[in-house]
């Protein structure tokens, strides 16, 4: 199967990609790092995060225990700051909010440096792929190509023309269809996944019918069935 067929679409007018910053949802996990000239005060606001500069600190599995999870009320809990509501906020808005709260504890709040990052992007790939399951990628953006590649590529039984993204939003569950064989996929507003998306690769109809996944296999199946029918008719006539 050849991917990304066709020619890129040339646009004669201004084209704006869907590049809005992501807004936090319930069950998201944040990596938060605080730096200031007074390390003793900074340590008060740590929540089990150690060696924040190491490669292991940003591991998605570690951050499940040491990061800041958004609870069902939309809050994260930081020592001495208490509950901070972050539901619907962007990373930048959360950073500013934390800096404002920390400024109450420091003589020189302008020297506080806060880093806020989403602790990787979690998504699920299921259906006709090599390794279906839940995946976490430590990236700022995850495209549909990243997702499929991370799941072991589409199997020979997968319908590359019918890839579905299932997304839970505040307006309900939404479904988006993508065609993996067309170059237009790069221009889709859903080319980049959002955290907790589900990517489903539907099976080919031939697999459901049991007639094979290629033209030759389908032809062979049809010839076998026809031969069986002809043999059955001849057998009945000779009885």
Q: In short, what is this structure?
A:
The chain is of the alpha+beta class and 239 residues long.
Summarize the topology:
Layout: E1 29-35, H1 39-44, H2 60-66, E2 68-69, E3 75-78, E4 82-85, H3 91-102, E5 113-118, E6 121-127, E7 133-137, H4 144-150, E8 158-169, E9 172-178, E10 197-203, H5 205-209, H6 215-238
Parallel strand pairs: 6-10
Antiparallel strand pairs: 1-2, 1-5, 3-4, 6-7, 8-9, 8-10
User: What does the overall shape look like?
Assistant: elongated
Q: What is the strand arrangement across the widest sheet?
A: 7-6-10-8-9
Q: Cα distance, first to last residue? A: 48 Å
Overall pLDDT metric: 80
Count up the helices: 6
Please identify the structural class as seen in this structure: alpha+beta
Query: In which range does the helix fraction lie?
Result: 25-40%
Taken as a percent bin, the fraction of beta residues is 25-35%
> The biggest beta sheet, please?
5 strands, mixed
Q: Unreliable stretches, pLDDT < 50, 5 or more residues?
A: 50-57
Number of distinct beta strands: 10
Can you write the helix and strand succession as a string?
Answer: EHHEEEHEEEHEEEHH
Query: Rg from C-alpha positions?
Result: 26 Å
Can you put this structure into words, describing what you see?
Strands 7-6-10-8-9 form a five-stranded mixed β-sheet. Strand 6 and strand 7 form a beta hairpin. It starts with 28 loop residues before the first strand and ends with a helix. The protein contains six helices and ten strands. Mean pLDDT is 80; it is low at 50-57. With 239 residues, the protein is of the alpha+beta class.
